[in-house]
Amino acid sequence: QGKVRPSSSPPPSAAPPPAALIVVVAMQQGTVAKSWGVFGWNYNRANYKYDQGLRWQRYTTGRKMAMAQVGMFRQDITDLAGVSMSKLKIYGPIYGIVITVCVTVFVEGRSGLKFPGPPVFISAIYLQ
Description:
Blueprint: H1 19-108, H2 120-127
């Protein structure tokens, strides 16, 4: 019943640490923090520089792929237009001759211009 509970405070015989000791501990902790900070900066800096190289490579590769894609699109357009152009190279002269004959038949009423016209019954067949 008369027992005294032990307190969590240090015993009165323990003297507080001197101020010089506190300064030394703080300097050591500061040096540790500084060295870790420099280490962290260099570590991140190396990763950043490495990542910059990869980022630039990824950017230029994407640009090259985009230019190749545009080139493929242009090649597709050229191929599609080439089909029509090759057909028109064949059909164009034929259409020119056909239009010439149609104009002479419908306007002049005969199929021959630089030579005597054909018999009348053949021109009648054209005009039907």
